[in-house]
Amino acid sequence: MNKVMEELNRSARYQRRKAAETPHQFKELEASTLFCLKCKEAVPVREKLLLVLTDGDKYDYLCTQCGSPVGSKTTKEDTPMQFVIK
Ligand SMILES: [Zn+2]
Fold first, then answer.
1. What is the mean pLDDT of residues 14-32?
2. Which pLDDT belongs to residue 29?
């Protein structure tokens, strides 16, 4: 019986650890919120692939409220993520 409880506890702990990983994903979502000059507030942005280059991809970030570009990102092989705010 004790053995079963131990197993249950272990799986419960595992579940909790899985839940603790979730804020990580939220953090990434927060990173996709940028300040829009037109809306004059931080807005959720849409990532739009602009160019596919041989050494990386260029993305534009568009405001989900007014659609104006609020930033861009270029991914490169040597520098995984370069973030440029216009
Ligand atoms: Zn906007």
1. 55
2. 45
Task: Tell me how far the alpha carbon of residue 35 lies from the centroid of ligand 1, in angstroms.
Answer: 8
Provide the residue range defining the domain that includes 37: 32-77
**Are 59 and 48 contacting, i.e. CB atoms less than 8 angstroms apart?**
yes
Ligand 1 center from residue 83 Cα (angstroms): 19
Q: How far, in Å, is the centroid of ligand 1 from the Cα of 85?
A: 14
pTM of the predicted model as reported, rounded to 2 decimal places? 0.51
In a domain, 25, yes or no: no
- Is 85 inside a domain boundary? no
CATH number of 51's domain:
2.20.25
- The total of structural domains in the chain comes to 1
